[in-house]
Amino acid sequence: MKKTRLDAPCTAVIAAANVIVFFILTMGGMTEDAEYMLGHGAMYVPYIMEGGEWYRLFTSMFLHFGFEHLVNNMVILILLGWNLEVEIGKIKYLVIYFASGICGNLLSMFGDLQTGEYVVSAGASGAIFGVIGALLYVAVRNRGRIGNVSGRGILFMVVVSLYYGFTSGGVDNLAHIGGLVSGFVLGVLLYWKRKGKRSRFAGNGYDS
């Protein structure tokens, strides 16, 4: 039976939540402004460590610095998240998405603590890299290809995304790496290949 977008309600709800939050925030201020975003749940290490505001590890995943940042992440989330949710199931998908996002933020926080350079950060890309990491493992388990998505294609996307991040300014590379590794590990722990069934994946993209 062919899968459709209706088979990935979690991806749709998460994407919708990100869009709704963004447009609500734009009615009250500038989403490109770090102070404004900080007042609405963005990550900032001193507030977390000294103020105990650990909720920022979660809320920051629904905030984006500007419309372009939002669109880039949501396009990739819908294309790749849909595929992963269809393949692995709703509950496991949610575990991978949110756990990877939080792990990515924790690694980012650790990096800030090591360097002593604290910046305001936000975005869903750590969680999305977790989706990519899990998809990479699923592709490996399915002999390198699932429908229109190949393991090599996903790996190439990872390399390009990380290269772009490390050669550009204002990108939280540690959150991307933390999310990617967490997603792959969680994929190993949570995914079991369904015997006698071929997986159906559609679409690809890359994250920045």
From TrEMBL:
Keyword annotations of the record: Hydrolase, Membrane, Protease, Transmembrane, Transmembrane helix
Sorted alphabetically, the Gene Ontology cellular component annotations on this record are: membrane
Q: What InterPro entries does this protein's entry cite?
A: Peptidase_S54_rhomboid_dom, Rhomboid-like_sf, Rhomboid_protease_S54
The molecular function terms of the Gene Ontology recorded here are: serine-type endopeptidase activity
What positions does the domain Peptidase S54 rhomboid occupy?
52-192
Output the GO biological process annotations, alphabetical, semicolon-separated: proteolysis
* Cleaved signal peptide residues: none
Q: Give the subcellular location.
A: Membrane
Q: Does the keyword NADP apply?
A: no
Q: Which SUPFAM superfamilies match?
A: Rhomboid-like (SSF144091)
Q: What transmembrane ranges does the database entry give?
A: 12-30, 61-82, 94-113, 119-140, 149-167, 173-192
**Membrane topology listed for this record:** Multi-pass membrane protein
Query: What family is it from?
Result: Belongs to the peptidase S54 family.
Q: What is this protein called?
A: Rhomboid family intramembrane serine protease
Task: List the source organism.
Answer: Extibacter muris
